[in-house]
Amino acid sequence: MQIFEKQPDEVYPVTVDFTARLPSGVTVASATGSVTNLLTDSAENARLVSTTLTTTSTTATGKVTGGLAGVDYRVTFRATLSDSSVLEEDLLMRVTGL
Q1: Which residue, among 94, 95, 96, 90, has the nearest Cα to 2 in the 3D structure?
Q2: pTM, two decimal places
Q3: Which of 24, 71, 76, 90 has the fewest CB atoms within 10 Å, counting from its CB?
């Protein structure tokens, strides 16, 4: 699981590379994202600028935003592949601050 830290006011892209998990000849066709607050176990999809992610043939990119200092969030990228298979990757977003 990839772990990254951000400040509450930062907004920037995060990319997941699915290359190592893609079967031969298969590409990423589309991807969506979701966010869960690990303190409350509740959905907080507003931590993504859009839940529809930007994709290339091997990656998915979403822009993270906001969050409460001291709270960890699980960011899940769900990629639908050209053969209709689905891959998921979870990231841990730690929001830090003074």
Answers
A1: 90
A2: 0.94
A3: 24
